[in-house]
Design goal:
single chain; rod-shaped; membrane; transmembrane helix; mainly alpha; transmembrane; 87% helix
Length: 153
C-alpha cells in the first residue's frame, strides 16, 4: 500500500510538472512559428493526451488505494467477528467431537451385533450339519438287515 501511495504522489508531481512544461512550451512560441512545427505536431492534442493519460493513471491509483482500504476493512470485520465468536466455535467443536465419538460407539455396537448374528447363523448351520450327519449315520446303521414293510391294499 505504501508503494501505491508513493506512485500516487509521484504521478501528482509529474502532473504538476507536465502542466508547467506545457505552459513554458506554449509561451515559447518563437521557435514554434520559426520552424513551423505546428504543421507536423499539434501541441494542443499532445497536452490533452498527457492530461488524459495522467488523469487515468491517477484514477487507477485512487482505485487501487480504495480497493486495498475496502479489503482491509473487510479483513478487520472478519477478524473481530471470528475473535468474538471463538468461545462459541470452541463449544461447537467440543460438541462435534462428542457426537463423533457417540456415532463411532453406535456403529461399533451395530458391527458387534452383526458379527454376533453371523456367528450364530454359522453355529446353527454347523449344528444342523452335525445333526443331519449323525441322523444319516444312525439311519444307515438301523436299516441294515431290515426289509421294508410290505404295503397292503
Amino acid at each position: 500500500m505504501i508503494i501505491i501511495l508513493i506512485f500516487f504522489a509521484f504521478s501528482i508531481l509529474l502532473t504538476i510538472r507536465s502542466f508547467s512544461i506545457t505552459d513554458s512550451v506554449t509561451n515559447d512560441i518563437n521557435w514554434w512559428n520559426n520552424y513551423k512545427v505546428y504543421k507536423y505536431l499539434n501541441m494542443h492534442n499532445v497536452s490533452l493526451f498527457m492530461y488524459v493519460f495522467i488523469l487515468l493513471v491517477n484514477i487507477f491509483l485512487i482505485y487501487n488505494v480504495s480497493y486495498i482500504g475496502i479489503c482491509l476493512f473487510i479483513f478487520f470485520i472478519l477478524d473481530v467477528v471470528s475473535n468474538s465468536n471463538k468461545e462459541f466455535i470452541n463449544k461447537i467443536y467440543k460438541n462435534s467431537i462428542k457426537l463423533k465419538n457417540l456415532i463411532k460407539a453406535l456403529f461399533g455396537d451395530i458391527q458387534i451385533k452383526n458379527s454376533q448374528e453371523t456367528s450364530k447363523d454359522k453355529s446353527w448351520d454347523s449344528t444342523i450339519r452335525q445333526i443331519c450327519t449323525y441322523e444319516s449315520e444312525e439311519l444307515k446303521i438301523n436299516k441294515k438287515g431290515k426289509t421294508p414293510p410290505s404295503l397292503k391294499f
